Amino acid sequence: MPELPEVETVARQLEPELEGHRIEELEVLDERWSRPVPAAELGAAVSGATIEGLGRRGKYLMLALDGGRTLVMHLRMTGNLVLVEGDDVLDPSEGRLLYQGERTTSAKHLRARFLLDDGRELWFTDPRRFGEAFLIDDADLPLRFERLGVEPLSSEFTAEALGAMAAGRTAPLKSFLLDQSGVSGVGNIYADEALYRARLHPLSPAGSMNLEHLEALRDAVVAALEAGIDAGGSSIDDYRDGRGEKGTMQEKFLVHTREGEPCPSCGGEIVRIVVGGRSTYFCPSCQVRLRRRPRRRAK
Ligand SMILES: [Zn+2]
Question: Out of 158, 213, 241, 244, which could bridge 103 as a Cys pair, Cβ 3.0 to 4.6 Å?
Answer without folding.
Answer: 244
